[in-house]
Amino acid sequence: MLKIGVLNDIGQVPDPDIYYSGNGLAITTNVYEGLVQYEPGNETEAVIAPLLAESWESNDDFTEWTFALREGVTFHDGTKFDATAVGASFERRSNVNAGPAYMVSGVSEVRIVDDHTVTVVLNEPNSAFLDYLASPYGPRMMSPTILKEQAGDDFAKSYLATADAGTGPYVLSSAVVGEGYELSYFDDYWQDLDPAFTTIDLDVYSAMSAMQLELESGDLDILFNPPTSSKQKYLDSDAVAGYALPSFQVGVSYFNPNRELLATPEARVALFNGIDWASLVAQVTPVSSVVSEGYYPTGSLPVDLDQRELEFDPDGLASWIQTLPSGTSIQIGTGAGSEDGTQMANIIAAQLQAAGLPATVTEHQSSEVFSTFYEDPASSPDMYIATNTWPDSNSPYMHGHVFWDADGGLNHLQCSDPETSELLAEALKTGEAEKYLAAAQAQQKAMCAPVFARGSDFVVAQTWIAGVEEAHSIAEPLTLDFAFLSIDK
């Protein structure tokens, strides 16, 4: 058994057509599989590799993608994987219509060529479609038998809240919200593996400190994303092994245009540029992140193209504050349990207070950020600090879409800009890097959800666990491919 801690539960049910957060990736990426994946163990770039599709090709304008499907794959319920499962899985994601549904919204047809060949036809060109499929939130193949027999009146959502319909190396054998989850190795898994760990136990904890105590006493085997204050200690430790691994994680400062204080781009620009982000990152997250030198996560665009120097303009901030009506204050939100986010928000609040703008800091659960913020943005914080969030994949479109578009799944405070969205849509059709850069530059003028840092994925493991780097994917934070871990004897 491999014992792993989960902080504050996973936030949503472990249904890959619904799940759109962090902790639960440890479940969804080990229980379900898509047609393609980002190559595990590749920590320098995002390379798309085969998974349930052995090969693929597209037409010249990226409107048709043909996949040769792997034979000999079995779903956990015993159903054989074939071309019918692709159509059923895409259709189910569209019907559920949760956050990740945009990845199949452009699919007009899944054309079955034969039992193990399908052509996915799109309504319009999509140069990022393979990145959609490789994303940890991308479409996962589900047993058409389960989707039919357990459909009920909610497309099998009730059933898949505590069970699964995947092909992955592990089966979801237990799910108790607020208590824990258990994964069991699937003996009929299509890859010829002899896993070191046949059971993965994911217990829910209410405090990171409790997880750290159990890790350090040997009662917990792996810990994801400890507080920055502990990371250097783990990197230097002989008792446990700390790993700072490349990722697409970014620090994002959200601004709320639905509140009077930050309703204009000029106000948002003055606030963002009035914060010394370089000093803030160096002070709060020196081990896990660096100040961002570009608009996108590392590697989304060529390094020589995605270049931007963060401006620090305290005079502009002071001038803006002087224009505010007497009694104006600002609310700065951050994630509950995020030590880094809370520390950063408190420092910003103190600086704004000193500049003449009273500030308060509030903490918010993930369930609130992903629901209440969207339902009532006018009652949400003026500003929200996320020190380690991430886009859906390495594609610059997928970063831009989820953070900047009006319907983006990570556009928590509902701030968008028509010019940015138009440029993103144009870039999607051709994949031209220059158009993605233009979209980012337009967003910077609108100042809705700018990136201020680029971060790593941090894992702490017992020293007898081997293969951590090889089992890690640059695109999948807070998880490992557990079946590929081994024991160092």
Automatic annotation (TrEMBL):
Coiled coil: none annotated. Keywords: Signal, Transport. CDD domains: PBP2_NikA_DppA_OppA_like. InterPro entries: Peptide/Ni-bd, SBP_5, SBP_5_dom. The keyword Zinc does not apply. It comes from the Bacteria. Residues 48-397 form the Solute-binding protein family domain. Pfam families: SBP_bac_5. Belongs to the bacterial solute-binding protein 5 family. This is Peptide ABC transporter substrate-binding protein. It comes from Microbacterium nanhaiense.
